[in-house]
Write a structure and sequence with these properties.
By secondary structure, the chain is an alpha+beta fold. It has helices at about 25-30, 35-40, 45-105, 110-130; strands at about 5-10, 15-20, 135, 150-155, 165-170, 170-175, 175-180, 180-185. The chain has two domains: about 45-130, Hemagglutinin Ectodomain, Chain B; about 135-199, Nucleotide Exchange Factor Grpe, Chain A, domain 2 (Roll), CATH 2.30.22.10. It has four helices and eight strands. The longest helix has about 60 residues, at about 45-105. It is elongated and about 100 Å long.
Length: about 200
């Protein structure tokens, strides 16, 4: 096999130095056996060990790359979900105001503005539903601190104790989890108008 000639490099002091060629695919190819006879002269055990090492390195690199791709996709999906939820939370107060505007006015089917707001609310509700966000009707339900936020209490003997008498702000759920708790007025039969409580 023809030996490779060293490369002459200039150094900073003006003298010349000898540096080996950098590793490259061409250099590696020159180091491979040039013929079947040369390959037969190499120890088979050495070749098998080298091949096994290459296979092991390839498998490690492939596994690392696969894990990297999965982690990148998972992080991207989580970030997108967080941004979507933040946008929906910012949108809900606007829906609340539109609902209050409709509740404060008369249900006039001939009023184009009333009908426009009503249709807009319906479309926004359908959009939220596509993203798994659903409003909940909490009036008449037992008070649950995990899904309700009590903003006030009233004494109504005609209703059961600790029943939601009125919903001040609608609650929303996402699947089986509370997305936004409802703000409610709770019936408290121990409550008196003077502000005292007795049990």
């Amino acid at each position: 096999m023809k030996p490779t000639s060293p490369r002459i490099l200039k150094v900073n002091d003006g003298s010349s130095g000898i540096s080996p060629e950098p590793p490259s695919s061409a250099t590696d190819a020159q180091n491979l056996p040039a013929s079947v006879a040369d390959a037969a002269s190499v120890d088979p055990v050495t070749l098998q060990k080298a091949l096994a090492a290459l296979k092991d390195n390839y498998a490690r690199l492939a596994a690392d790359f696969n894990n990297f791709m999965k982690r990148t996709q998972r992080d991207s999906e989580q970030q997108a979900a967080v941004e979507k939820q933040a946008f929906i939370r910012d949108l809900l107060p606007i829906i609340d105001n539109l609902e209050r505007a409709l509740a404060s006015g008369q249900d006039d089917s001939s009023d184009p503005l009333f009908q426009g707001v009503k249709m807009t609310l319906q479309q926004v509700g359908q959009l939220l539903g596509k993203h798994g966000i659903e409003p909940v009707a909490d009036r008449g339900r037992p008070f649950d601190p995990h899904r309700h936020e009590a903003v006030s209490v009233q004494h109504n003997p005609t209703q059961p104790d600790r029943i939601v008498l009125e919903v001040i702000q609608r609650g929303y759920w996402q699947g089986e989890k509370v997305f936004r708790p409802a703000k409610v007025i709770v019936n408290d039969l121990s409550y008196f108008s003077g502000g005292s409580h007795a049990r």
